[in-house]
Amino acid sequence: MMLSPEEGKIERYLGEFPGYRFLANSGNWFLVIDRESSLYIIDVFSKGTMTSLPSLESIRSSTSIVKRVGNTSFIRETSQGIFKDLSRDNVRGLLWVDESGKDYVVVWFFDLFGHSYISFCKKGDSHYTDIPLINRDFPWSYGFSEMVLRGYHLYLYTSRCYVRLLDLSGREGFRDITEGRPFPMLSCHVSCDSSIAVTTSGEVLLVESDPCNRSFFRIYKKDTSLVDPDAIAHTVLEVDSLGGEALLLDLGFTVPANHALGIEPDSIYFTRHFRPCQCRDRDLDICVYNLATKTIKRFQFGDMKIMDARWFFPVN
Asked: Rounded distance, CA 194 to CA 212, Å?
């Protein structure tokens, strides 16, 4: 269903999708996984438009092998050992589809603590390419706690709060195009729920919310005046504006404000409180936070039992 939050009603019924779990969205397109653990890209406004993706075990990697165990379970064999308990239920992903609907990038991973790989494919690929998250020569690159896919660029917020930038556009593999040593994005509020977002100009922001009361958000940018950010425990500067843009936190990037579409400037659109590797439920909290007034608006939909929700703006 497409719901109008301001009016609290169904704006358009998009049909039934039995057996599918929705993982990510990009415009009208959604990344879904079915009961047999197969991934597809679906245009929700044209249900017959569906793109099949490679099977989850079709991975090109020099360091690991993924094997299917039944319809919903998998194992990954690596030089460090065997990861078990990998299943359809803990697959998460990201999706980008260009405006023409012809090119796409899919990123997915098993959301399990300690699992050290993510995988991606582009249009025309018959397999996924692994991105290892462990590099003994660069310990700051270990793991991730959030990631943003914007076009062919994948932004990784590592477990140690550094930001890596990967280019997925090449014919084979990927390139780490992080400029120099990654910058640590650290605020003094260590107890907050943190994630990253990317502006239309490509600037990376740190986003914090209160995981308990859920009554505020804070936005930070890099403090570029720091000579040695690795020696500082607080490396960011708080900002009270998004420059007139709006942040779709579910997608991890900003978009131009558009009053005709109801996209308010300097506002954060948000639906959930869980991040990768936290092993938490979806914990829906559909809201808009205004940075200028420091106020939050939550949306209720009567007696409707909503299992999951995502902000998205349909493409004409």
From this structure: 13
Token pair 């299992």: residue: 307
**Pair 120, 106: CB distance under 8 Å:** yes
Residue 65 β-bridge partners? 77
Residue boundaries of the structural domains of the chain: 11-134, 183-316
Interval 174-192: pLDDT, tens: 999 987 778 899 998 876 7
Say what the alpha-carbon torsion angle 42, 43, 47, 48 is, to the nearest 10 degrees. -80
CA distance 70 to 93: 21
pLDDT tens digits, residue range 198-208?
A: 999 999 999 99
List the chain residues with pLDDT less than 70. Answer: 1-16, 47-48, 136-140, 191, 213, 273-283, 301-308, 313-316
Under 8 Å between Cβ of 38 and 23: no
Tell me the pTM: 0.89
